[in-house]
Each structure stands twice: as structure tokens, then as C-alpha cells.
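User:
I would dearly like some help making sense of a protein record. Take your time, and here it is.
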Amino acid sequence: MQQLRILVGLLSWLNRIQLRVLAAASVFLVAVITVVIALGVVFRYGFNNSLSWTEELAKYAMLWLVFTGAPIALRLGMHPGIDLIGDRLSGIAGHLIKALVSLCVAAFCGYLAYKGHQFAWNGRSQVAITIGDLSMYWIFVSIPVGMASLFLVAVQQFFEHLLGCLNGGPAEPDPFLVQMQKVMDEQA
């Protein structure tokens, strides 16, 4: 049981770092999207001279935003889900159901990370011409990066619920969740 606690602590530390990086990247991407779309509107309607690259860059930034924000949402429990059984069961049974769900999510995300990298690698010879001959690999690699991050978060959640099954109660609060709950409370 002590080794499981150490593993959960290690995953918590690793995820705390990656989720902070992803949160900063998400904020940056929202700013990029805002500026790029504003530039596109101003140039199109203000100067009657549309920029050819704004729409494409905004789309690719949005794609990256989805895959940088998804692990944060998963860790905070903000993804939509069907909690009909897991929320009604308490104690060991509830943790067991949630552990199985987390394990399935981890397996699915791991598979998508693998297949996503194959997809990105196959697209490396394509280029996004309007944004400077950028290889589409750098756009498509958002898929395996996001899925690998989701995998790590789901693995942490699996082991937390497994630890909850063994303890018969809730796991120790994750520092990232505690920090984010303070931020969310301040925003409310």
C-alpha cells in the first residue's frame, strides 16, 4: 500500500507540472486566437484587405487549445460523464467503479496517443502554405500530446481510486485540485 501511495504521489507531482504547463499554453493559445481573429476582422472590414493566414492559424490554435485544455478538464472532473452508478455508490464500490472507468479512459487515451502519433507522422510531408510552409506534423502532433497527457491524468485517477478502494475512504486531496479549487472559488 505504501508503494501505491508513492506512485500516486509521483503521478501527482508529474501531472501538477504538466497541467501547469498546459494551463499556461491554453492561456497563450486563447490570446493568440483572440488577436488573430481580431486582426482578420480589422483587416477584412476596416482596410478591405483580408489576411489569408488568419483563419487557418486560428483553426490550428483552436485544435491545440482543445488538446491542451482537455487534460485540465479531466483532472478537475469537468468533462461530461454518466455518473449514474458511480455517484450513487459510496465507499469501496464507488471507488471501484470509478477506478474501472479511469482505467478504460487511460487505455483509450493511450491507444489514441499511439494512433495519433502515426497520423501526425504520416502528415509530415503536407504543409500549411498560408502560415509559412509549416509541416502539418506540428499541427497534428497536438493529438498524441493531448492524448498522452490525458493518459497520465487518467492513470493517476485510476490509482487514486484504487487506493480509495484499499483504504475504504477518500484519497488524499491532490495539490493541483486544491490550488485550482481556490482559483475557481475566487472566480465565482
